Amino acid sequence: MAGRSAARRIVGARSTARPEVAGRGWRLRLTVRARLTLLYATLFALSGAAVATLIITLTFAPSSQSQPLQKAVELRKSASPPPAKFTATLDELNQADGVLQAKEAARRELRERLVRNSALTIGVMTLASAGLGWLMAGRVLRPVHLVSGTARRLSQRNLDQRIPVSGPDDELRELAETFNGMLDRLETAFEAQRRFAANASHELRAPMTTSRTLVEVAAATPGASPDLAVLAGQLSTVLDRQDRIVTGLLALARSEHGTSTLCPVRLDRLAREALDRRAAELAERSIEVRAGLPASTVSGDLVLLELLVDNLVRNAVRHNHPGGTVWIRTDGPTIVVENTGHEVDAERLGELVEPFRRGRQDRVYGGGGAGLGLAIVDAVTRAHGGRFTLTPRPGGGVRADLALG
After folding, report:
1. What are the start-end ranges of the H helices in 166-225?
2. What region does 395 belong to: left with phi over 0, alpha with psi -120 to 50, or beta?
């Protein structure tokens, strides 16, 4: 049943950003989609700033055409007389000086406007690129979300689900195909496990029936010795235990396939019938029963639910001590069974839902049952989409809470 535990541990989580404690402070943890969006926006902003800076620098670099006129104006302003070959009149120089100043003022204004408008444009386009980057990252990561969503929905009863494979032949398609291949192998392994349990249980019934018949015939033979009668009784006890194990394995294999036949089932009635079947043992061990069983109807498989309730009651009686108490209550789709008994720690309780686990022993040898009861309860509960929890009682004993879906 290691595969069953592994399948239940498949989980996933999806959020945009969530805080987590890191050391002594809080640290914001972003998803891959958010980080990709920030990366796209940052690269766009840096690229836009670099392009704008390059354009403005090249546009307003000093040109060779303005050098002669600028030199003439500087020469007019100097204290030394101009060379004889300089024929430009004073009015022309004054006019050229005014033109140069006007051009410089226009260049400064144009440069300022370009810088301001470039910054505004880059900011707006960065926000737009962040939005487009968010959409593109979501589209790129859609196969990953399909994988995580499928993993969250998985259990050993719906391993037939697959991720739709479409789009180009890239790494994401390879991821989806790899995940589907893993599901194929898991489904094959679980199906082989179910078939093995069912077939082995069925095959064991025939030799057990033959052995029981031979023991009964030998014990009933006229003139049989007392030793033979004692041996026959011991063998009958062993065969009874083997029969319980086989019956439990069959029920476990059936419950793992899920529920196929649903009908209204009275949980309170099943509980009363289970208590009636244990009436002799309860009286013999002086165990008190405190029951609160109002009418409680659920939709489910009658055979599996009857087995579930019977195992809960049997476990509460079997693992109780003489003079103890059993509490059983039903309320709608829930049933709660408590019993006094030996103290069991919470870690050990988590192991009791595994097959062949019992309160103080791990195998089926010795008294106390086959070790399949709570495993069957857990499997039937999950087959009905419910929840089954075990908690230790103060002073000893166990409380079993079961809520069907």
Report:
1. 171-220
2. left
